[in-house]
Amino acid sequence: MKAFVLSVVIALLPVLMLQAEEKKSDSKAAPKAEKTLEIGSQAPDFQIKDSNGKLIKLSELTKKGPVLVRLTCGCSGCDKELAYFQTLHKAYKGKGLTSLAIFREPDKKVEAYVKEKKLKMLYAVDTKGVSWKAFDTKAMPSNFLIEKGGKVRSIAVGCDPSGLLANNVSKFVAQLLETEKVDVQKATNAAKKSTAKKSTGTTVKK
């Protein structure tokens, strides 16, 4: 009987060893869960060159104060929303905010667009979409507000030509800078109306 049991164990031994090796191999091959960028997490160690070839390091910018990174393009939706973020940048740049716009289009197209829109913030071009991978997003546009020190304070994705999204970002910027919130939606819309009246040759009665 003992001889029979021993012979069965010996016969099964290769199978048991093979199963153990397969389990070991599976555990090694199992991919690690990717880290998702979320509010409160540390911003990626991100850097990119601007149109002049100068290296922009996010870590260096966040040493000075909060940074708003906008991953965008020149499509009609992003174009309509841009004015609100330009107002936001203008309202807070003197109080410590740095705005960085990263475009997906080729350099020449972006250069022309920047001149047309009179963009005054930092900007760079990323045709390969490396920035989108670094910030773990596929949305266009995506806005990441990063506080001084490098933690993500706010994430706003998707296009909103009405200005509500930009206005919400303005709230978080004001909190970080400990200053009064600027209604960028109201300010931008008022500027648009003023420009429209000037172009039609009408004046505002006082």
Radius of gyration: 27 Å
Which consecutive residue ranges, at least 5 long each, have pLDDT under 50? 8-34
Separation of termini? 112 Å
Q: What is the count of DSSP helices, taking H or I runs of 4+ residues? A: 7
Q: Major sheet: size, sense and barrel closure?
A: 5 strands, mixed
Average pLDDT score: 85
Strand and helix order: HEEHEHEHEHEEHH
Number of strands: 7
Brief description of this entry?
The protein is an alpha/beta fold and 206 residues long.
What would you say this structure looks like, in words?
By secondary structure, the chain is α/β, with parallel strands linked by helices. The chain has seven helices and seven strands; from the N terminus they run αββαβαβαβαββαα. The protein has helices at 2-29, 58-64, 76-92, 107-117, 130-134, 164-177, 184-200; strands at 47-49, 55-57, 67-72, 98-103, 122-125, 142-146, 152-157. The strands form two sheets. It has a five-stranded mixed beta sheet with strand order 5-4-3-6-7, with helices on both faces. It has a two-stranded antiparallel ribbon with strand order 1-2. α3 (76-92) packs parallel to α6 and α3 (76-92) packs across α7 (184-200). The radius of gyration is 27 Å and the shape is globular. The N and C termini lie far apart (112 Å). The model is unreliable at 8-34 (pLDDT under 50).
